[in-house]
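User: tokens in, sequence out, please.
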């Protein structure tokens, strides 16, 4: 079953398929235009009813009826020998469908897996040797400038995945995200958070908890509120104030960050629960 990281990385390409074309053009020097239709296509290559044979993401470049290039994006986190045969079959099947050049673009977060994936795939068809284009950790830059991060948020999210323990990388990503409209900010924030390592997540949480960070999405709002709720419970415990079930539920169900901060401020000097929740505010 695909991992959350696998699904998130795949979503980066599905959300903006031009990202794959930019990698091939800028990293692998593939001559591809950017002013043509670039879209996600069906990735089902099943040739038997009982055979599950589907690529992660398939992208076509050019007109739908006459594409000029096909890209098979594969997210590969582990070494699995059967995938090498599958990639060759994917490439052959898509070439037969599109009748144009096809490339397998493999994203490998691990250097060890990237080295394995880059090996030529020799088939039993005379002359058919597949050379995957492998986008490994050595290809992912350390993005420390929010303007550069904003230029390609997909790559910036990958930079957080690989280098987010460096505070400046995560800060650059979060600053770039904060300048987006609410819908896009929510989407890219969650991409970054799901890909981030634990140290990077802690940096993101710290930034999210600051007064300057707008809590865009239900995911971010819920995460923020859980952290604030835990802080409130700790303060009440230190103050020696017991929390009955109705008050516990009220705290855990709150999704308003301003309200949570107000309760924490009151709890710091409270001697009873009524000091935190005055009766007239119930």
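Assistant: Sequence out:
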């Amino acid at each position: 079953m695909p991992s959350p990281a696998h699904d998130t990385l795949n979503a980066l390409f599905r959300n903006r398929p031009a990202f794959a074309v930019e990698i091939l053009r800028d990293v692998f020097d593939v001559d591809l235009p950017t002013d043509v239709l670039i879209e996600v296509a069906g990735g089902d290559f099943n040739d038997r009813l009982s055979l599950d044979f589907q690529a992660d993401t398939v992208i076509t470049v050019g007109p739908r009826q006459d594409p000029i290039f096909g890209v098979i994006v594969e997210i590969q986190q582990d070494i699995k020998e059967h995938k090498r045969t599958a990639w060759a079959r994917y490439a052959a099947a898509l070439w037969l469908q599109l009748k144009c050049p096809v490339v397998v673009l493999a994203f490998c977060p691990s250097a060890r897996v990237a080295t394995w994936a880059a090996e030529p795939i020799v088939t039993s068809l005379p002359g058919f040797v597949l050379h995957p284009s492998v986008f490994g950790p050595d290809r992912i830059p350390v993005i420390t400038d929010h303007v550069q991060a904003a230029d390609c948020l997909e790559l910036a999210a990958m930079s957080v995945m690989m280098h987010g323990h460096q505070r400046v990388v995560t800060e650059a990503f979060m600053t770039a995200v904060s300048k987006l409209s609410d819908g896009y900010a929510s989407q890219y924030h969650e991409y970054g958070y799901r890909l981030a390592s634990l140290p990077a997540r802690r940096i993101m949480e710290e930034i999210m908890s600051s007064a300057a960070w707008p809590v865009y999405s239900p995911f971010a709002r819920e995460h923020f509120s859980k952290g604030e709720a835990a802080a409130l419970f700790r303060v009440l415990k230190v103050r020696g104030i017991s929390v009955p079930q109705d008050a516990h539920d009220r705290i855990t169900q709150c999704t308003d960050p301003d309200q949570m901060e107000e309760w924490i401020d009151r709890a710091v000097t409270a001697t009873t629960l009524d000091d935190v929740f005055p009766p007239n505010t119930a």
